[in-house]
Amino acid sequence: MTNSSAGQSKERWRGWEAAHANLIVDSVNALRDDQGLTIRDLVVRLDEFGWPVGVATLNGILSGRKRTSFSVGEVYAFASALQVPPAYLLLGMPYASELSMSPSAELPMPLVDAYDWLTGNQSDGPFDSLRNYNRFLRTVVWQNALQHVFPNFDAAKLDREFAGPVISGVLLREAIWDLMEVRAEFVRSGGKLESLPLPEALLAFEKDWSKAQDAELPIVGLSSDVEIQRARSYVRESLPRRAMETDGEH
Fold it and tell me: What is the pTM of this model?
């Protein structure tokens, strides 16, 4: 590589970084406006995260195009303070419709493709185990919350086909089994079991999955009061009123 071409590459790199830094600034400002946050408000939140940035410095960062790049830590801090995933900022949302994902890219990438690339949201990708684990864990917690609401229901009086399996705990037991299988597959592929931690209420099933088939439902301590209340509201809105009355709900 000649000195001239090396200089051009460095210039392209700096320009590409600066363009993405501008996207982050625009995203942060849009979120700040949407949430009604002043610069000082955001400084407080960033300080709580651990970034001791001053009001004048932050105002300079967000009021112009002075920053040509952001560190990983700074992106994390902004995302935490504004309660969005880091990917939201890196994708330039809500404004960007396409992104240049490298300085040498001939064409920009549509936003949906950039999202898939950035988040690993692709079939047979390296994040399948993490994605599946989160999905099954949410299912387990939700089905368990429903079990707190359903115990006294008469399945014969329910019109929905899913009601019987839910009441009998079939879906919950299947979801626990799926959750354990994902963890086992993750370990077989070289992952560390600690990376997919089980809630304390499920530790009894870790060594022997079959125990889940005979466990007393609902599993105490697995679903929070908030989740149980959400399940109760869902049942009230979704199931026939005559079925609700069998549980004393009015």
Answer: 0.64
